[in-house]
Amino acid sequence: AQTIHQWPVAEIKAVGSPLSLGCTIKGKSSPNLYWYWQATGGTLQQLFYSITVGQVESVVQLNLSASRPKDDQFILSTEKLLLSHSGFYLCAWSHLRGNYAEQFFGPGTRLTVL
Amino acid sequence: AQSVTQPDARVTVSEGASLQLRCKYSYSATPYLFWYVQYPRQGLQLLLKYYSGDPVVQGVNGFEAEFSKSNSSFHLRKASVHWSDSAVYFCAVSIRTGNTRKLIFGLGTTLQVQP
Question: Is domain B3-114 in CATH 2.60.40.10, yes or no?
């Protein structure tokens, strides 16, 4: 069975400080990977997706970047946090090929920027 | 433009009552539709999905949803709710974009089940 882990569970960071959030998928080779951002009480907004190692596509510009250094790992980062980066960050995966469209979500990381 | 509308931001029902959460989508091609549930401070869990075929699809924990092409809707139903069903429910449509697919989410409906 596939499992998806996100780290850390929660972060409290200062404005202007760097950030790195991680996501690992076990039990699934070559998944599509996604990063989402959810404002408190809000809906989900897709930030990035990746269909293979080393390739990441940006969906919205939020002064964030993403990388996929390994097949099972997806990293979200920024060198300088803004107050507007606060929220809940969710990683998700889906099957690479075929018409499987459902995405499976990790437990999320709650980020508070002060 | 593609979109998902959940007209009810909050729904309150009594335990044991029936439930319907509404969802309307806008997408010109064949839609793949989903309902997800989010419990407090957790990620999203897939409740059910519709790809094609029988317009009524069954999901986990007694939930079902009905697809209507004519109404562009995918409403979620449950015959008898339990207090543990209290959560936020998101409707989503999968659209093709480039060489992958993208989920477009509604704003969510917060369900509160009263004892």
Answer: yes
